[in-house]
């Protein structure tokens, strides 16, 4: 079911500072910041050779990463996103295995414009997993 | 400086259960468990198309992931490892930037038999970063 690691998401309290750190201190290629108000985040992509890291800063009142940053104010690794070929087939297989899909269970259009689902971290040893249909 | 994402490490309290979850529920290719007593962990590699996830369970009395699992007993994302071409050059450049290298500052031989260093998570927005010379 799992394809490529699409991205690793890191929540940060200060996107400008984090971007500078990855660009200047770690010498990585970084994108411009993109505000995604419908997803409650502003994102910078750190482009690695084989995948990307996404630096996420809360945007607006109901950011999905606000609670995470309340618990970890300095930031931290938030989730891993894997490609899947068929997200509905993946969902049905996961649900049949007893794994919980967050929200309504219907895929939403994610930050890359493709259908995504999140899986409950308690079912995967504390790791929040996103699946994206590619 | 940063090359490929070498691996994403996830600390888990029960490696057998976590391996079964990635293999059976998520449909990923997983390795046999390898005990690495000199590193204080037992590891299973989850082979993705473009990188790997490493599931780590504490081994022995002074496991480097024991404190993490005390704080997060269910497990969680522990660190990201990036390839670098020259670990001493990377270290010197990072130190000159004010980033803290953990331990003595001298690379140790990591779980893959190659020189590694860890960077202080407080200098990188709560993310523990490992660098591995490839």
From TrEMBL, chains A, B:
**Gene3D superfamilies tied to this protein:** 2,3-Dihydroxybiphenyl 1,2-Dioxygenase, domain 1
Q: Name one GO molecular function term.
A: methylmalonyl-CoA epimerase activity
Name used for this protein in its record: Methylmalonyl-CoA epimerase
The answer to keyword Isomerase applying to this record is yes
Question: Which parts of the sequence belong to the VOC domain?
Answer: 4-134
Q: Which residues form a coiled coil?
A: none
What's the superkingdom here? Bacteria
Enzyme's top EC category: isomerase
Organism expressing this protein natively: Rhizobium rosettiformans
Keyword tags: Isomerase, Metal-binding
Q: Which family does it belong to?
A: Belongs to the methylmalonyl-CoA epimerase family.
